Every structure is written in structure tokens, then in C-alpha cells.
Amino acid sequence: MILRTHYSGDINAEMDGKEVTLAGFAHETRDLGGIAFLVLRDRKGLAQITLVKKLLGKEAFKSARSISRESVVLVKGTVKAEPKAPRGFEILPGEVQVLNPAQVPLPLDPTEKVECELDTRLDARFMDIRRPSVLAAFEIESAVLESLRGFFRENAVTEVFTPKIVAAATEGGTDLFPISYFEKEAFLNQSPQLYKQMLMGAGMDRVFEIGPIFRAEEHDTRRHLNEAVSIDLEVSFADDKAVMEILEQAVAGAYRHVAENCRYQLEVLGLDLKVPSLPFRRITYSEALGLAADKAGAKMQWGDDLDTETERFLGQSIGEHYFLTDWPSSIKPYYTLPYEDHPEVCRGFDLMHPRMELASGAQRVHDYEQLVGRIKEKGLDPDGFEFYLKAFRYGMPPHAGWGLGLSRLVMTMLNLENIRDAVIFPRDRKRLVP
RNA sequence: GUCCGGAUGGUGUAGUGGCCCAUCAUGAAAGCCUGUCGAGCUUUCGACCCGGGUUCGAAUCCCGGUCCGGGCGCCA
User: Looking at A41, A130, A215, A366, which residue is catalytic?
Assistant: First the structure.
């Protein structure tokens, strides 16, 4: 049995006279003596419950108007068209029931009248998410996932799950979280990269995975997390250019889906979402260095990874999504395919939003000998990759793919200040609870 | 990790040596009020991160610590 018949947002003045049952939280009350207004909040909005002393009787009126803020309430009543009420209707209750009272004082103000620091909000995240603008971001995140899954389905991509508990630091470099796994040491996986490539060798042809990744890096910024959700794609018989087109379509499609299906949430956030136009600009790494060199003080050498300052400069001058392509092979991972005629440059790319990197991808090395050579060049030991390399000895299709950060996509889409605003229970350098 | 800034009622803040048994808003408690919609009005409640020091006197200055924010670094 579901207790409510309607959400607040589903009710309008045309429903005058209809019996409804609403369930939610007591957002606030305004008590005028002989009449009082109880505002009920659920995930679709607010509804005014009008309490009239003469209609309810003295006792019922007294108890209804003294409900503490944020208590869980159930209201059975009649919709009444009322021009004086917000949104043109109010609920005249037959019964107001407190299903569970809230203690006072509250850890923060869910009506958003008083500002609240991020740290305080995260400590009481359950209460923070009651704030409509916070909830709106997570509902939009869900819509983004719905859009992406739909897009993958249309393109005949198979959804898979790969292990998050792995045996070794499979890619070298990045710090992994060690865990205890019975009598063995194990790690939380930093990326599904090696597994999705192995699935190309398995003949699955096109796979995607949406799942958590873990990085033990000590970064401490507004755009990094130690646990994140990655959207990964890998496609056989495709090159880097092909998967870049898939990526830009996926991103633009997510924007379009949100613009069309999340009007209420966008209104709550005060956003006029603009769908980025396709295709995104393609800029090579060398061109990017040239652009940055025009700016005084740029001291990037060819072969350096782009520093934050250069990245920001490029973002500001371009002002929309763009791809950075043709990176130096030396700064991309071993599985990135170098160009045949000039191997110092590789078929790796990053998808950039003016504020930050959103995704990175590449055409992969699919030749066994070349892959072993690249692993050695990076100073890694091929023996540690045997489980992966094995898949390259028995026929590996050429393939390409990418990984896209979900929270960064949502953060940049909604212009959120901090990536923690795009994660329900974020894990960062210092936070492990809630 | 590093540089800079910060920590004052439940929440957000004002307060640069005495004018502070600490400001304002929100909140909470009690009361008045029949159309509020950030309702209004009256009364009340509730705080200087921890430890040490300087000083006649410290929320305020100094030292150490803890925690938080921002920048950078790190980011296969």
C-alpha cells in the first residue's frame, strides 16, 4: 500500500473538489490565529494545507498548527481552487496525521532561507537533500544516467560490470586503496580500463559500464574525489575519431534530455540549460600549446602535461566544450595507440568543458608485441599484466573507447561550485562519513 | 603535501585590546492575530574550537594543536 495518492506537484486548481492524500515533510507553518497554513513538501514541490479553526475544531486545529518543522506528515483532504493560495489551490484537510515527529533544533535550514556551509551540509546530508535545490541536482543526475543508458541501447552497446576488487596495481602510477582479501592483498580498482579491453577480445564488440572507481591520490580540490562514478565505453573496429563522435553525441544528448525532462528541477535551480551544439571543436595538443604561448608567461614545453593555468586559459578562450587531441605519447598511458608515421604523438583525446576535463579516451593498442613494448617503455613489468595481455594473443580487434566522469558532467552542466555538490555522499581526502 | 584565509548560539553572521554578562538574521519556547505565501507583533532561550602565553584587562594579540574553506601540486 502506498500512503499518498498524489505528489504536491501533481495537483492544480483544475482538481477542485478532488479528495487527495499527500505525504511528506512539514516545510513550515504560518499561524494567524483562527487560520493557519501548513506547507507540505515532497520531492515534487510544495502544497499549502489550510487549517481553519472553525472547520477542524479546537483540538485538531491546535495539534495541527503545532507540528514541528520537518516532521513527517500525512494529509487527507480536499483540493480547493483558491486564487489567494500559492499556485492557485490549497488543501482543506479532513485529517492531519504526524507519522514521525522531527526533533528541534534542526541541523540546518531546509527552507533555504539561511545559508549553510558545505561541511555542515555534508555532515547532515539527509537533511541537506531535503532542500529543493540540492534534490534537484540529484534528480537531474538520474536523468543524465537515463539518457546515457538510452543512448547506449540505441547504439547496441552492452552494459557490463567488471570487478572493483582487483589483484594488482594494474596500470602503475596511480595510488590504489589496498584492502585485505582473505589471505591475499587486493586493491580497489581505479578504472575498468583493462577489463573493458579484455571484453573486446571476448567478442562483446561494444560495452559500457557505469560504476564506481577509486583513487587513493591525495588531491584536495573542488573537482577531485577519491570515489567517483565513471561512465566507460569501449567499441571494437572503431578508431579514436569514431568514439569521439559517440562521446559528443552522448553528452549533447544528456543535455537535451535534461532540458526536456527536468523543467521543474531546472526552474528550482534557476537554470536556463543550453544544449551544446555539435560537433565540438577539435584542437590538437600542439595547437593548444600555440594558443597558450600567445599568453604572457606561458612556459609549457612540448611533452608537458597541461597545467591547471593553461587548461583554464584554453577553457576561457574557447568558451564551450572541445576536444584536445593528438597528445604526446609520453604522457598518455601505454594502451594508447601512437600514430604509425609519427609515434611521438598518439591517438588519445580529452573532452574538455571550459572549467575542466570531463573525459579521456583513445584508440587502443591492439597488437600484442606493441603493447608489451609500450608497457616496458613506461617502466612497467609485463609480467604483472599477464591476465590482460593474454587476451591480446588470440585475436584482438582494433578498438577505441573513453571514460567520462559522471559528477563532472553534472557539475559543469548545472554550474555547481564544488564536485561534492554532485555526489550524494562524497568521499574525499578527509571525509569518510556519512 | 604546500601556500593563503578562516573557526562566535542549532544554522548563517557582526565584532582588530576595555564601549561585549557579545550584533543581526534565521530558529526554538510562550502568547496575540481568519488569507498567510521569507507573514506580522510581544516576551523569553541559546555561542566566542582546544591548550598555553602576553596584558591591569583577550572573541580580538602571540605560540602550539585540531578542524574547515580556497589556490597550487598530485590526477594510469
Answer: A215
